[in-house]
Amino acid sequence: RVSFSGERLNNNRKTLINFRIEYYHMATEAEIIFQLFLAAIIGGIIGVERQLNGKPAGMRTHSLICIGATLFTIIALTSSDPSGMPRIAAGILTGIGFIAAGVIFRSRNHIIGLTTATEIWVLTGIGIAIGLGFYFVTIVSAIVVLIVLIPMKIVEDKAAEIGARRMAKAKGKK
To answer: How far apart are CA 70 and CA 30, in angstroms?
Structure first.
């Protein structure tokens, strides 16, 4: 399991190299397999909610995005280049920006896919957390994402319904 101490978090190049070497020796093949399957499962669970709501990116897309972020993070951590992890993370986020932009559509005065795009961005962060071995952060983040996507959607729909009734009532008084 990867663990960061304050010493490892400083910007000292030697410390970063030592962390990478330690990670490489610590991360067993079993843990890497666990990380990739965890990414597939969490991505799939979040993707089910999107698929059930008929959104453009579903279960498989979400699983693959989370697996990809985890995989690139693992590769970056095992690299001997101390600047590898920040560059890989920046590359992951840039690439995911293109994918997320592809699910946003505009029609007249309505934008579709914005929630899916931002959720894909957050899912990438979850994948990176899995690759770093931050399992607690991973699980809590996934739960928060599901809370935002499911119960908050119900509240949002109810608020939109109330707003539409008020608008219709205001137009009827004119």
So the answer is: 15
